[in-house]
């Protein structure tokens, strides 16, 4: 009987030691993330157990709670505009901690201010490259689908659908061919309206768009 009691005591002691080791391998951490310079709390900062997918974010008051296991572990604290910070959590770490993040200094490239819209200079460079590229161009081809819908007040009177093919060759210039066309209802003898058939070549220096000419930028 004494031997049985001793064995039971040793088993209980072993389980107790294993339980205490498991408890010491875990740590509940509460804290606050602040701006290290001003002390202002930082909402939406992320706190992650490094190397795992476990983590949390600070609330609107910059506070967080996180169950850390195993211990020791490293917490990675991050916030946009601040340097990331790593904190080692051990069994001796206090349950309440304060994390101060240093603002990150961003060095920007030199900015040149001028009185001209920078888009104009970009377009001049685009047009210059277009000229150099088009000098070796021998031909182009484009297909355009258009739908023309004619209304009388709120009533749809007629629909015209057209597929045009536009050809251009360096030797002979350009031409257009109507490859397919459908009109509903069919036109009457006295029913006429303007039909869109023009296929613009956007490689041209001057392109007509809705009756207006878009000219090349002068240098």
Could you list some keywords that capture this structure?
3-stranded mixed beta sheet; Immunoglobulin-like; alpha+beta; 39% strand; 2 domains; single chain
Order of helices and strands: HEEEEEEEHEEEEE
**Which regions are unreliable across 5 or more consecutive residues at pLDDT < 50?**
15-24
Q: Going across the major beta sheet, what is the strand order?
A: 3-2-5-6
Please work out how many helical segments DSSP would assign: 2
Calculate Rg over CA atoms: 38 Å
Distance between the termini: 108 Å
Q: Shape, please?
A: elongated
Describe the main β-sheet briefly.
Answer: 4 strands, antiparallel
Question: What does it look like?
Answer:
The chain has helices at residues 2-24, 118-134; strands at 27-35, 46-49, 55-57, 63-68, 73-78, 85-89, 96-101, 139-152, 155-169, 173-184, 207-209, 212-214. It is α+β, with helices and mostly antiparallel strands and 219 residues long. The protein has two domains: 22-101, Immunoglobulin-like (Sandwich); 118-214, no CATH class. The protein has a four-stranded antiparallel β-sheet with strand order 3-2-5-6, with no helix packed on it. Residues 15-24 have low confidence and may be disordered.
Q: What's the structural blueprint in terms of helices and strands?
A:
Blueprint: H1 2-24, E1 27-35, E2 46-49, E3 55-57, E4 63-68, E5 73-78, E6 85-89, E7 96-101, H2 118-134, E8 139-152, E9 155-169, E10 173-184, E11 207-209, E12 212-214
Parallel strand pairs: 1-7
Antiparallel strand pairs: 1-4, 2-3, 2-5, 5-6, 8-9, 9-10, 11-12
């Amino acid at each position: 009987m004494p031997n049985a009691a001793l064995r039971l005591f040793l088993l209980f002691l072993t389980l107790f030691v294993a339980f205490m080791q498991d408890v010491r391998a875990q740590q509940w951490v509460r804290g606050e993330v602040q701006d290290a310079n001003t002390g202002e709390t930082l909402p939406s900062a992320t706190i992650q157990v490094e190397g795992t997918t476990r983590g949390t974010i600070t609330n609107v008051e910059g506070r967080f709670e996180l169950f850390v296991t195993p211990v020791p572990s490293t917490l990675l604290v991050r916030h946009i505009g601040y340097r990331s910070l790593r904190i080692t959590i051990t069994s001796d770490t206090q349950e309440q901690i304060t994390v101060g993040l240093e603002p990150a200094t961003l060095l920007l490239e030199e900015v040149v201010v001028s009185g001209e819209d920078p888009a104009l200079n970009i377009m001049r460079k685009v047009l210059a490259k277009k000229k150099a590229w088009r000098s070796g161009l021998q031909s182009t081809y484009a297909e355009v689908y258009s739908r023309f819908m004619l209304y009388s007040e709120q009533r749809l009177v007629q629909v015209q659908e057209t597929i045009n093919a536009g050809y251009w060759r360096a030797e002979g210039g350009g031409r257009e061919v109507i490859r397919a066309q459908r009109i509903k209802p069919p036109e009457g003898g006295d029913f006429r309206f303007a039909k869109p058939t023009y296929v613009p070549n956007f490689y041209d220096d001057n392109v007509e768009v809705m009756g207006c000419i878009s000219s090349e930028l002068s240098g």
